[in-house]
Amino acid sequence: MKIILVIFRKELTDTLRDRRTLISMIAVPLLLFPLLIGISSRIIVSQIQKAQDKVLRIGLLASGNAEEFHRGLLSNTRVRVTDDLSADSARSMIQSDRLDAYIVFEKDFDRRVMDLLPGRVSLYFKSAEKRDIEKQRIVGLLNEFERKLRAERFSRLRIDEAVLKTMEIQETNLASDQEKLAEIIGGFLPYIFIIFCFLGSMYPAIDLAAGEKERGTLETLLTSPASRMEILLGKFGVIVLTGILTAMIAMVGLYLGIVQVREIPSELLKTALGILQFRSIVLLLSLLLPLTVFFAAALLSLSVFARSYKEAQSIISPLMILIIVPVFLGLMPGMSLSPVTALIPILNVSLATKAIIAGNVTFLLLAEAYASLILIAGASLFICARIFERESTVFRGT
Known about the structure:
The chain has helices at 2-16, 19-53, 67-75, 87-95, 109-114, 132-157, 177-185, 188-215, 218-222, 228-260, 266-275, 278-305, 309-316, 319-329, 347-358, 363-389, 391-394; strands at 56-61, 79-83, 101-105, 121-124. The chain is mainly alpha-helical. A four-stranded mixed β-sheet has the order 2-1-3-4, with helices on both faces. Strand 1, helix 3 and strand 2 form a beta-alpha-beta unit. Helix 7 runs antiparallel to helix 15 (347-358), helix 8 (188-215) runs parallel beside helix 12 (278-305) and helix 10 packs across helix 12 (278-305). The longest helix has 35 residues, at 19-53. The chain is elongated.
């Protein structure tokens, strides 16, 4: 055990001297979230405000109908109206972003309304995400005009509008704020932690095996009194530690990113911060620990197999896709922790994290996920040890 600790301290010191490891383990997770959350929130608020304050350019073809709606548009300081546009001209202007919408009232609109029939209106626009607010504003103008017409119709018929309501449905959502928030971010958080856990393990694994091969220091270490297993466990412990620390630093970065955003409502912020309580963090880290052991063993095995640092990078980098796929599946609607999904590595961490955040995790399913992770971690460590014992693999390419 003493020899393992000596090797562990030596490898940890070498790892902390590596600039790439420090950047991926500390700088990126700590600074990325505050920057991303801060910049994205400000851009979103700015774009929403811009769309709300924008002067809408509306083409109108009323054919003598809907005079009240026409007057309302002309008196609206945030609307610029172009009358009597042809359909072809309006379509062309909308496509070239010179017009936000084109409204056409059918020639018999007023007559149909007077005959207690629905008047026909056509709305043309170019649909894009950034134009959703603009479209909602235009539809809101039409809805307001419809409400006025309906009120006038019922007043003329001397009927109370309340007769339209034959049933009132009172909805009561019993899901807690924590459960609602977990459904929104429950798949996103494990995606972040698992990816950073993998990245935090990747660079030390490459450097402590393929990197030492390239520098010629691995042979020197193998001639020491330490056994192969002691050397492996010393390196392995450093890789696991950096992976867990990177995930923890990512949590801190996420916390700092959430706190700095002023646009988040106070109730939502309180709920979000309530998720990051001690019990939830301990459970999350306990799930990440066996997963990190699996990552460390797999990465170290591939790094030992590689001839150089560059070759190790080219072998290991595509693994990111294999990590992303099960995490992505955890984001799918309807996916939850079950006796089947609890057995699937990485996916079980994603779904268990969502359940932990929601506060409705089942002990038996959580235990099944732990058992699955511990089993695969043990198997990967066993395979890594067998690979490290083979001379042909360790000295491959030297």
